[in-house]
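Quick one, T. Sequence first:
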Amino acid sequence: MPNGPVHTAANLGALAGAYLLGTAAGADMTSFMVGGALGTFLITPDLDLSGKVRTNAEKNWGLLGGLWYPLGYFVKHRGITHTFLRGPTLLLIYFSSILLILCAAVYWVMVNSGIHWNIEIPPNALTQFPSVLGGYLLAYWLHLWMDGYSMKDHKRW
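Structure tokens:
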């Protein structure tokens, strides 16, 4: 199994190739690259090691890296997080839950401090989601392929 720097280098190479192909075809690759960076640096299949081994992704989270400990406690390494659909779904739901809780806590503190928080969501934010997800899945699946998992194995879905 490749180590963290090898996974990162392979993902960055694949993302660079996808960027060159996409821009040559006239596509805006910004949101795709954001998803790829997310899957390369922050939300990787190896976050299931949190609390056991300090992974690169956990280090990249800085002080917030500890928020991934419960995940590492409840799932075994190379278990559900190393599947092609269930793994990224679990990690994205976990991440969304963490983000929601953190935003709610910040909002509660701000409201109780008398600070007004006006959030404007860009009108095209939801239209960018498929592209972000595509970049994320490219990085995620490349990690799994490098670990030796095949899409042909139905147990890996």
